[in-house]
Amino acid sequence: MGFDDYRNYLGKFVLITNITLFLLILVLFAVKGFTSEELTELFKYLVPIKALYLTALVKFILKQQKNPELLRPINQNIQPLFKTLTKLVFYVHIGSLYIFILLSAFNAISFDFLIGAIIALETFFGIYIGLIIDDLFGKSAS
Amino acid sequence: MQSSNRRLFIVFIFCLVIIHDTSAQLNKASTNFISTQLTDYKNWLTHTNLNTILTVDTAILLKEKYVLQMRIKDAYNWQRLVWLSDSAFQNSLSDVLLKRFAFQMDLKQTNCEITIDAVDAGIGISWEKGKAVTKVWKKMGIISDGVALSLTRITNLNALGPLNTKRSIEDIKRRLQAGLKQYLKQYQAKIEKFRFEVIYQLDNSLILEISNIVDAVLDEGYFEHIRLDFSFQQENNNVKLVYDIKGKYGAGLIWAPQSSRYRDMIPKYDAAVQRFSLKMSNKIGELLK
């Protein structure tokens, strides 16, 4: 897998997992896993940080559309450490969010704990994800 | 190189902002239970219109008791409020305030106290010998202007009754416990075990707590937690019965939520609570025939 393919794969992964995360929350709300007050609170914590990631990604997609040159594959090998690090950060981050949200809907953990977990996850992974997204889809990528 | 450093600097500033913001929010989440319950208590005060005279400061844990700290202008306005509320409540104002606070914090009345600070007095409400006892201490040398604050109207507080019956108090308690347990069991949640508890029982009062029920009060599919509070008064051959109904709801799939996740049904589901109160009123009447 070339660099561009890997970048496209990660872009799609972030987009799809984030959209399905919001869909999952809405489904859980519909089946009474969350009250309307809890749904509002959950979105209050998730939306700002998710919007930051997705904005960089969407900007890159729009630029790609205007400038197809960006799509041209670059003969650049991916360093195994880079691949492992990015996969680890993205998979653990989104996976943990899914698990904590599901656990809270089933009352295995309290809602306050869920909010604390989201804050901790976003604080810890937010820095790394911000750096990776900026590097892959930010100005430098263009 | 310069452009790269600038980019790194922006990312660093962005990270600092996230860390600062999230650590502040983390602190906020740890005190969430008390603040959520206090918000519900304030909403209830607003719902009853008592908030125009009485305001909530905070709640603290003091000597193994939760103390709700409130504020009122002066002792004159407190006396006026007690007098005005006598006609609106079936119980005394102190009793209503203390029981609502205990329900909100998910505790027994014996574990709760209320202190009300006024310019010229301090007012303390605690639960002693089966009833709410109010003590007023005058502050030496301070006189208030005695201007009455306006209070529009104290609205319905879901206090029901009085209901008169010739049965003995012990018989009434037995009938209520058995009859209501059977009646409310039809609303039990699918997997969680139905809970019907007598949490307080003295000669003149009976408090029942029912949890892990669904769709008894609301038709929303949430878990519900109800507290039924009965007071009895012997009058010649009759027993006068007064009661009120308080309810909370909480979300969750299959398993019931922890107490911190329940929210007061008032004021959001006021109409549903009133409808349920009428239903219970009929049922209690039937049980005591």
Structure notes:
The complex is a heterodimer of chains A (142) and B (289). With 142 residues, chain A is mainly α. Chain A is built from four helices and no strands. Chain A has helices at residues 3-30, 36-66, 80-105, 111-137. In chain A, helix 1 (3-30) runs parallel beside helix 3 (80-105) and helix 3 runs antiparallel to helix 4. Chain A is elongated, with a radius of gyration of 17 Å. With 289 residues, chain B is an alpha+beta fold. Helix content of chain B is 37%, strand content 31%. Chain B contains six helices and eleven strands. The model of chain B has no long low-confidence stretch (mean pLDDT 83). At the A-B interface, helix 2 and helix 4 of A face helix 1 of B.
Q: What is the rounded Rg of chain A?
A: 17 Å
Helix/strand/pairing category of chain B: alpha+beta
Structural class estimated from helices and strands of chain A: mainly alpha
- The count of helical stretches of chain B stands at 6
Largest sheet of chain B: 6 strands, antiparallel
Q: Beta-strand level of the residues of chain B, as a percent range?
A: 25-35%
Which blocks of ≥5 consecutive residues of chain B have pLDDT under 50?
Answer: none
Largest sheet descriptor of chain A = none
Classify the oligomer: heterodimer
Let me know the average pLDDT of chain A: 84
Spans of chain A of at least 5 consecutive residues whose pLDDT stays below 50 are none
